[in-house]
Amino acid sequence: MEGFNEFAFVLGGVNHWITIFLIMAGFYIIVSRSNMIKKLVGLSIFQTSVYLLYVSPGKIIGGTAPIIVEGNPEQLYSNPLPHVLILTAIVVGVATLALGLALVVRINEAYGSIEEDEIYGEDWD
Amino acid sequence: MEFLINLVLLLFLAAVTFAVIGVRNLFAVVILGGAYSFLMATLLIAMDAVDVGMTEAAVGAGVSTVLLLSALHLTNTEEAAARHSNVLPLALSLLTGAALIYGTWGLPDYGMADTAVNTYVGQQYLERSIPETTVPNVVTSVLASYRGYDTLGETTVIFTAGIGVLMLLRGRRPRKDKETSTGGDAT
Amino acid sequence: MRSHLILRVVSKLLIPFLLLFALYVQFHGDFGPGGGFQAGVIVAAAFVLYALIFGLKTIQKVIPPALLEVLVPMGVLIYAGVGVATWILGGNFLDYNMLDSHDPSHGQHLGILLVEAGVLVTVASTMLLIFYTFAGRGR
Fold this sequence. Notes:
A: mainly alpha, 74% helix, C: mainly alpha
């Protein structure tokens, strides 16, 4: 267990840093790309980064999944509450993704393009 | 060992994200998105969120990929070259990242049991689930029983999204389309 | 898609087990990982796999879209109906202890089972219906 503390010092923040990197990457894709499907993929990355943001503080080292084993009262369990919140968020996420894709398909039928720049150009002409 | 698995999965996740940013072919982007979801599911299982991991594998890598592919079939698979510079979006996202990194200074280290997140309400659920509901899987008892109102709301949201997609895509397709229709296959 | 022999045989072998696994995930959700959301998505994925291999026409003979349009609100109604039932039995909305007058914990198990069934029906049918609309748009 001696190496454990050094590891915790170096890696204690890695989950946060990667989460922040994913947030930045998703945000960058949404703002910089004009292709709408790419934007939706960026939005999904943004969304999954929130799963990490919620689930990683709930993890307890030495703990296990929050399914109670009877006859072992000393067992540590990770926090179940973030899991519940994220579980519903995932399914709602795919429902909103489907709605966004439906909008993209309709836009493509109306304008013949899924590039934001071309659609703006067409509207201003 | 737990740390190592966690670290490797996180680095893979970052690498896949870089690839998603760089690749222009949308088909490749969608397949990379599936790989991303599988990595995320594995990572969630490594962090003890077994229910969430299972859902993410089925939803993110399965259903989302199929939906994105069917949308690609109806639209265009190549992303156009960028028309303006990416300096402003890059600066904006770096600024956001810097603010968030500053925010992590006050956060506790990964995996500690005595943090504010893990002591109050989560601990209460763990202690009370068996005496009050006799359901061993605490995630299920919180989802369906303690927070039943939430889940009713989520179910209604899914129902509403389904109705929305039907309203947008049901009905006759306009007949003036320019691209040649490639009917036949289901995708 | 007439000629993909391996895909056709393997998917025919896999789909029954996928559906069985979905039922296991659904009904074992009290004791292991699983529940209505996961099982619903797995059911939908099994049917989507069938549609990808054998075509949209074939799957719509098995599950017509009109049936799905009934099932989507049905799940929400099952869920809300459990709440109304507990109201009628004298408890609060979604207070499952009321469902069994002898042992409240049996009421909890029954309530969770019914509510998860509602979630399963809505999630599975919505995902499949969304897939139908996207796939049917192309022709």
